[in-house]
Design a protein that fits this description.
- This protein has one helix spanning 12-27, and strands at 38-44, 57-62, 68-74, 81-82, 90-98, 104-108, 123-127, 138-146, 152-160, 163-170, 177-182, 189-194, 200-203, 210-216, 221-223, 227-229, 239-246, 252-259, 267-273, 280-287, 292-300.
- The longest helix is centred in the N-terminal third of the chain and has 16 residues, at 12-27.
- A hairpin with a 5-residue loop joins strand 2 and strand 3.
- The strands form four sheets. Strands 10, 11, 14, 15, 16, 17, 18, 19, 20 and 21 form a ten-stranded mixed β-sheet that branches. The chain has a seven-stranded mixed β-sheet with strand order 3-2-5-8-9-1-4, covered by helices on one side. Strands 6-7 form a two-stranded antiparallel ribbon.
- The chain contains one helix and 21 strands.
- The chain is elongated.
- The chain is mainly β.
Length: 306
């Protein structure tokens, strides 16, 4: 992983394995009798994140009853593995974040700061404003069982909190401006709650319209800047997107898209031709790879009120 422009490429696993050698010796000492050592190293879920610069790491470790056992904030960007103080035997839920700094926020559901009495499933991740973030923040959650005296190495997959949406429109007259809103984007995410697919990361049901960046067409083409967007609220089966197209004379037209749900860490690419766009459109998906989904227009949705 390339840490920054001034440090060499470092593989997280290599660092972790070296640390494990020293930790294994330490965990066998008399000072740790009756305790259990947890060694954590972090790895990217999406290979595209391999060159991500890390500026902040935060780790919460929760006891089986949901109370906080310990937490750590590691500002040192080269520290990509960690081992907490020895822990008692049992199950622990580990919640980890990378780069969860402004404009990202971490808070509890009641709005107060983290304390020992707050359960993991009350942690919320959100943005301070409902608009595209300049970078990705990542989180990882894993249930760990400690039942031995030796060091227990644990890999934690780090996922993007936000999704990515790219929209391209072909055939627009030059000077046409496009902007948009994801109407049913979630206002926050519960990282330690499981979604319907059994993965950690559940969006709340409260919507907060998410503003997409704008762009102006040139040479008949327009691509909105890459938008890092909040995923769809958990209660909705589709994402609700409104595009506003304004011509060079200032006249605007709204285009409503019903699309597949935007999921945490997903990547979505929508390519359209202006001549084929309607005021109401339904979008279906096709798979590009494990992380990226293409969207295509199915056709016009008839208004049931007509």
């Amino acid at each position: 992983m390339r840490m920054n422009n001034h440090t060499p490429t470092v593989k997280w696993l290599s660092i972790a394995l070296l640390a494990m050698v020293f930790l294994t010796v330490a965990c066998e000492s008399d000072d740790f009798k009756g305790k259990h050592c947890l060694g954590m190293f972090l790895q990217w879920s999406d290979p595209q994140d391999d060159t991500t610069t890390v500026s902040n790491v935060h780790i919460w470790i929760y006891k089986p009853d949901g109370t906080l056992a310990t937490d750590y904030e590691l500002a040192h960007k080269n520290k990509l593995n960690y081992w907490p103080d020895p822990l008692d035997k049992g199950q622990y839920l580990v919640v980890t974040t990378l780069n969860m700094t402004a404009p990202y926020l971490s808070e509890m559901t009641n709005g107060t700061r983290q304390s020992d009495s707050f359960a993991a499933d009350r942690i919320l991740f959100k943005l301070d404003k409902p608009q595209s973030a300049p970078f990705h923040a990542h989180y990882g959650v894993k249930l760990v069982t400690l039942n031995g005296d030796r060091l227990q190495p644990t890999a934690i997959d780090m996922h993007r909190m936000l999704a990515e949406l790219t929209i391209t429109i072909e055939g627009l007259p030059d000077g046409t401006t496009v902007t948009g809103v994801v109407n049913n984007a979630a206002s926050a995410i519960y990282p330690a709650r499981k979604n319907s697919e059994g993965a950690y990361g559940l969006t709340v049901n409260k919507t907060l319209p998410f503003t997409l960046p704008s762009a102006t067409s040139q040479a008949g083409m327009l691509q909105l800047p890459l938008a890092r967007v909040m995923p769809t609220v958990q209660s909705d089966a589709e994402s609700d997107i409104m595009l506003i197209i304004t011509d060079a004379k200032g006249s605007s037209t709204d285009y409503h898209l019903s699309a597949p749900p935007i999921k945490i860490a997903g990547r979505y690419i929508l390519n359209m031709k202006y001549a084929e766009m309607h005021s109401e459109m339904h979008v279906s998906a096709y798979n590009i790879n494990n992380w990226t989904e293409g969207w295509i227009i199915d056709g016009e949705i008839l208004n049931p009120k007509d």
